[in-house]
Amino acid sequence: MGTMVSGAGRVSGLVILAMASTASPAAAQALNDKYWIEISAYFPKANTTVNVSRPGLPGTEIDMESDLDMDENETLPALYAGARLGERWVIAGEYYGLDRQGSRTIERDMDFDGATFPIGVEVSSKMQSDIYRLTVGYAFIRTDRAELGAAIGLHATNFELSLQGDAEVDIGILRRQNQERTFLAPMPTVGVFGTYEVTPRLILTGRADYLSLDIGDYDGSILNAQAAIAYKVTDMIEVGAAYRYVDYGLDVDKGRYTASVDYDFSGPALFIRAGFR
To answer: Which of 13, 53, 69, 80 could in theory staple to 38 by disulfide, Cβ–Cβ 3.0 to 4.6 A?
Structure first.
């Protein structure tokens, strides 16, 4: 699909910004690192259900993987970086993006954003989600080998959803349609994080962020959890593996249209990190 290449292009454009403000407090950085930057390959499996409607034109709940054969598995790059402010404060964040496509001859009528795609037509689908996280954390407990703290942050996702195919514009009349919706969903989060140095070279970390909130045009919840293990190859370089689980439940009401997205993805990641003291 070229997802890895297109994702890498977006990542490279964010490196300078990320160096200043990005990775989660629990992204497995060593306790003595003042600054760090990490690049990883993430291998998630996604499950997605969407519904987009207009006033008076209710939409169909569509399982993007089952109904439209959208890719479930992707390999994508992710970028993490951050900085410690004193002994206990951490400012951190991350960026990664999922860009998936699919195409299938549909087996039922589907209403999406005011258009009806009838049974038997071929429908192409696309879903791109660019995910940005920024967190500020404080370690309430900190020793020479461990820390435990809490964080507040912002988890913002830019969604692009589209369906393309022959749609019914009048009774019995089909016309090629490309129905597309783009919206940015900002979600504040609260969470916990921890780091434990099993040995001077082996580091375990974990974190979990969650919030359920109705704010402005958005009503939803998000859970973002990760566990990681890293090994210090040198004083500056670490390599490791992680497992991440992300679950969205999001409703958007813009007046001229409404959308709901149930979106979860999970999977392992491999990473390399440079730390600076």
So the answer is: 80
Kindly report, residue by residue over 147-159, the tens digit of the pLDDT. 999 999 988 889 8
CA distance 151 to 136: 5
Question: Rounded to 5 degrees, what angle do the CA atoms 255, 184, 101 make?
Answer: 105
Q: How far apart are CA 273 and CA 275, in angstroms?
A: 6
pTM, entire model: 0.80
pLDDT at residue 8, as a whole number:
41
Delimit the domains of the chain by residue range: 3-276
Give the amino acid at 22.
Answer: T
Q: Which residue has the tokens 């349609």?
A: 177
If you compute the radius of gyration of the chain from its CA atoms, what whole number of angstroms results?
A: 21
Task: Kindly report the number of other CB atoms within 10 A of residue 251's CB atom.
Answer: 16
Supply the CATH classification number for the domain 3-276. Answer: 2.40.128.90
